[in-house]
Write a sequence for this structure.
């Protein structure tokens, strides 16, 4: 048994778990938003959560995975200092979650969606139909 033959399956499984995790962490924050009086920060918070939900859903099904993962990685990089470190002091332990999420997203940008995805289905369908 060669481990290489299962790499695309494991990539697809990792993508599905990551998409579910992003949705699991983002949807409850819309139900109980933070209490703030700073309107621009609250607007950025809501926009960031909707981006996380939309991109997480795209990553979950494997549609436009590279683009969605890149947008999500940029979202995490922007969201952390703006929301959790507004004075831009040294990062706290909260940074590890954002850093890990950004690294996973950048891996999905470079590796793609894997075999169990709508991207793979689109590519297979395009190769089947061929140029006309």
């Amino acid at each position: 048994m060669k481990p290489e033959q299962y790499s695309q399956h494991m990539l697809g499984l990792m993508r599905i778990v990551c998409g579910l995790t992003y949705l699991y962490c983002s949807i409850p924050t819309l139900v109980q938003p933070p209490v703030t009086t700073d309107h621009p920060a609250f607007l950025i918070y809501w926009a960031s959560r909707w981006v996380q939900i939309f991109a997480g859903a795209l990553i979950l099904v494997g549609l436009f995975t590279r683009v969605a993962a890149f947008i999500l990685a940029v979202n995490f990089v922007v969201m952390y200092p703006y929301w959790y470190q507004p004075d831009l002091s040294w990062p706290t332990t909260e940074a590890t979650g954002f850093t890990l999420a950004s690294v996973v997203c950048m891996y999905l940008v470079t590796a793609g969606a894997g075999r169990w995805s709508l991207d793979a289905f689109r590519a297979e369908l395009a190769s089947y139909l061929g140029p006309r």
